[in-house]
Amino acid sequence: xxxxxxxxxxxxxxxxxxxxxxxxxxxxxxxxxxxxxxxxxxxxxxxxxxxxxxxxxxxxxxxxxxxxxxxxxxxxxxxxxxxxxxxxxxxxxxxxxxxxxxxxxxxxxxxxxxxxxxxxxxxxxxxxxxxxxxxxxxxxxxxxxxxxxxxxxxxxxxxxxxxxxxxxxxxxxxxxxxxxxxxxxxxxxxxxxxxxxxxxxxxxxxxxxxxxxxxxxxxxxxxxxxxxxxxxxxxxxxxxxxxxxxxxxxxxxxxxxxxxxxxxxxxxx
Length: 269
Fold this sequence. Notes:
Structural class: alpha+beta
Distance between the termini: 139 Å
Largest sheet: 15 strands, mixed
Radius of gyration: 35 Å
Order of helices and strands: HEHEEEEEEEEEEEEEE
Number of strands: 15
Number of helices: 2
Oligomer: single chain
């Protein structure tokens, strides 16, 4: 009888081996976890820093001219507030409408078209606080509301003048703002590169053609510190001696038009 060699003993099963590269995958997972924790820590630190910076800016904002408080000093009194769309006898006495200006049910219109204004073609509406007994010798804040550009037929450009701007040898400031928010603050010469001539643009202006805006000036009791505002935000300041009781006027330059719907005067008396 033939004998066959004994069969070899069964081999033990090969232990499970993880797929090639699984160690590196696990390492990547762990590394990602570490990066995630680091990211959370970094973002937290950044947010904390932003919070601290915001608090610091809030504390020093008044020194930076960023205060959202009223531009009218404490103790000043409002002595005139007019809805110019419904002018009264008092308003007709207070405003000179003989140089390109006129009252309508829509407001006080300053129209510099076709030479309707003064000799320069500008429409100038002079304001006389003394006509109703107001005293501006202790400083004043004068604010005008401007109707949206869509309210006028010409290009809108608005003037706020303080002091004697009709005499080239006198002291006066001319603040002009166009319908796109560009402004010029200049002296009576109003020549770039000579004397006072500041220009720029501001995000404070409402560029929407159907939204109203305000322009204003504040003159302190010394009559040598003038600050101009757009929609309550300080835009420009100057130090020019305007005299004890500087003249006030609003209007529109030649070829332009502005409709003023309200006016407010506060004084330091």
